[in-house]
Specification:
Blueprint (H helix, E strand, L loop, with lengths): L5 H12 L3 H8 L3 H9 L6 H11 L3 H4 L24 H12 L2 H25 L1
Length: about 130
């Protein structure tokens, strides 16, 4: 179910953030004329460009595409300016320990995490 088109959502995101086309061009590496074409509705962004725009504007890609979802990105972005992942100290510890586990046992850990996430989702649904 779509609510609004890409061009309208892009303009809304620019308005809300106060970012101008030129600044968006600088943040994304996309040309300003291309961004202008997006805003006129002549083109829709391809997936990689949509992602760059969503990150630069800190909006949900689905929302930007016109879907009826929250405008705000659902999770923080853990990628720096050079597209490197930025991890918290806890994440680094978790990854380090995970790498020390035998390959077959990693599936147990993944299953455990999936179970925790499922339980958390159920808990949140019951709280509403």
């Amino acid at each position: 179910m779509k609510k609004t088109d890409f061009a309208t959502r892009l303009q809304e995101a620019l308005d809300v953030t106060g970012i101008k086309q030129v600044e968006l061009s600088e943040k994304t590496g996309l040309s300003q004329p291309l961004i202008s074409q997006y805003l006129k509705g002549k083109f829709k962004a391809k997936q990689n460009n949509l992602y760059k725009i969503a990150v630069a504007l800190n909006v949900n890609e689905g929302w930007l595409m016109g879907f009826d979802v929250e405008m705000e990105r659902p999770t923080p972005i853990y990628i720096d300016q050079e597209d490197n992942y930025v991890l918290s100290d806890q994440e680094k510890i978790l990854i380090d320990k995970f790498r020390k586990i035998e390959d077959n046992d990693r599936y147990i850990v993944i299953g455990f995490i999936d179970g925790l996430l499922t339980a958390e989702t159920s808990k949140n649904k019951n709280a509403v």
